[in-house]
Amino acid sequence: EIVQRCNNDIDENEQLHNGNHWDELIIKPQELKDSIWAFSTAGLRPEVYFSLLEYTARKFGEKSKIVNENSSYMEQFKPQELSNTVWGITNQLLKRDFSGGTCIDSEMKDLENRSMLTIFRRVASIILSRPNDFKPQEISNTMWAFASVRFGCSMPGSVAAELDLWVGNDSQSRGGGY
Q1: For the chain, give me the number of helices (H) and strands (E)?
Q2: pLDDT tens digit string along 91-113?
Q3: Cα(first)–Cα(last) distance of the chain, in Å?
Q4: Are 152 and 146 within 8 A, CB to CB?
Q5: How far apart are CA 79 and CA 127, in angstroms?
Q6: Domain range for residue 30?
Q7: Which DSSP helix (H) or strand (E) runs through 37?
Q8: Contact 79, 117 (CB under 8 A)
Q9: Per the confidence metrics, is the pTM higher than 0.85?
Q10: Number of domains the chain contains
Q11: Which residue among 24, 49, 125, 132 is least crowded, i.e. fewest CB within 10 A of its CB?
Q12: Could you tell me where the beta strands, DSSP code E, fall in the chain?
């Protein structure tokens, strides 16, 4: 539904990741989580996926227009929605270099990495500030996602190099772990 709404509103000559277009959309937490999860499950990486990540990263730091002015957009997410969002992003990152021949240029990889870092940092801060809101399964799934891309980890030596080869990341460019 989100992709359809976006495509219906976009002029043919307008870029999908034009911030003005995305700022007008109000995407509910469940819609956002479901969209990221669906792209990940299907292994699809269209331009709208990258725009959705960028939108998510930006909105996680802003005050909300949906519930009330004092809560952030991210605070409206249920714990399972946060966990599934993080899982979907991680699953996409793990498939990035094996995405069925789809070439992802370095600019899109950088956008994906920056967005992921912003989202993961905010999700980690929510878990730390509201640990009793999360069920063990939600924390477990989120920690799996973090560990799978080495978010918050720094592993020196051959273990890190081996993991980087498997995950398809370059630890030199990020200083070993996100």
Answers
A1: 9, 0
A2: 988 887 655 545 677 888 888 88
A3: 32
A4: yes
A5: 8
A6: 2-174
A7: helix 29-42
A8: no
A9: no
A10: 1
A11: 132
A12: none
